[in-house]
Design goal:
Elements lengths: L14 E4 L6 H31 L6 H30 L2 E4 H34 L4 H4 L2 H27 L8 E2 L6 H7 L5 H34 L4 H29 L8 H24 L3 H13 L1
Parallel strand pairs: 1-3
Antiparallel strand pairs: 1-2
Length: about 300
């Protein structure tokens, strides 16, 4: 850990230099077109999911309520990260004010922590639907679903306030170069020239509570689902039960694999390029792929989409 500098030598950094996803001009031009197309596609997909869930009464059920929340979250999520990624690809390395960097970090932490909790709520929904179907209308009545969704957003907000406050009050006295395409936790901590023990403790506790806590809920739900499915008498019933949660299981696997690899490690991540590639997976590719994964084999969503297209 770096020793704190004494007051006379300490000059607070007013801005950071974001190196971006790539420093090669030729590659940046290609990547700009690719990621702009991915951004627009992600917004279109998730807007369509929200519209279908809101406008079709047959989708007014807990599973689709959570899916609509997830789509709203991922539209916000990708809109927090993608503009800075695109600016970096368009202009090359660029300066971002300290307050703007902390603002982006705040919303990023809110959204990633909210997604952890929301994925756990969706796993619980599938657990009740498969393991306790007779109690489903009671255990996941509208008030409970609303409480789970609001709780997910509130937990993300509280964690973000704590983590961002700690990171914003650290001293940054140079260099001010962030080898990333957005203001992320680990690159910022690596630039701090003061002790970060409290910040690391807050980061560790929040990871235990939100990241590992939500993952344990999801794993526990799917362990119970697996036992229930294996006890079903017919292969057709097992296939139907599995198909209702397979898409969510894929999303959970992709999201948690990339997130845990980055945020469950010590604060110093030496493989910066690998860090950026993994960040692209859960900040860009996951929000784009989730609507496709969830709706690829969902007959009810297909029917609602066909109805919408025929009426337009």
């Amino acid at each position: 850990m770096k020793p704190p500098l004494q007051g006379a030598n300490l000059t607070r950094v007013q801005e950071f230099l974001l190196l971006g996803l790539s420093t090669s001009p030729d590659l940046r031009n290609i990547l700009f077109v690719v990621f702009l197309a991915l951004y627009l596609l992600t917004l279109l997909e998730n807007v369509l999911i929200v519209y279908l869930v809101c406008s079709h009464s047959e989708l007014h059920r807990p599973m689709y309520f959570f899916l609509g929340n997830l789509s709203c979250l991922e539209m916000s999520y990708v809109s927090v990260i993608m503009p800075s990624l695109l600016v970096g690809l368009w202009t090359g390395p660029y300066h971002v004010p300290f307050t703007s960097c902390m603002t982006q970090l705040f919303f990023f932490i809110v959204l990633i922590c909210t997604e952890c909790s929301l994925l756990a709520s969706m796993a619980y929904d599938r657990y009740v639907a498969i393991c306790r179907p007779l109690h489903y209308p009671l255990l996941l009545r509208p008030r409970v679903c609303l409480g789970l969704a609001l709780g997910s957003w509130l937990s993300g907000l509280l964690v973000s306030v704590a983590k961002t406050s700690c990171i914003a009050t650290l001293s940054y006295c140079g260099p001010n170069v962030l080898n990333h395409f957005f203001c992320d936790v680990s690159p910022l901590l690596n630039l701090s020239c003061t002790h970060v023990a409290l910040t690391e403790l807050v980061d560790f506790i929040s990871a235990i509570v939100i990241l590992w806590g939500s993952l344990l809920v999801a794993l526990g739900s799917y362990a119970a689902i697996g036992r229930t499915v294996l006890r079903m008498p017919s292969a057709a019933a097992r296939r139907k039960a599995f198909s209702t949660c397979a898409s969510h299981l894929v999303v959970v696997g992709i999201f948690y694999s990339a997130t845990i690899f980055i945020y469950a490690r010590p604060r110093r991540i030496d493989a910066a390029d690998l860090n950026k590639v993994l960040s692209v997976i859960y900040t860009v590719l996951t929000p784009m792929c989730n609507p496709v994964i969830y709706c690829l084999r969902n007959k009810e969503v297909h029917a609602a989409l066909r109805k919408t297209l025929l009426c337009s």
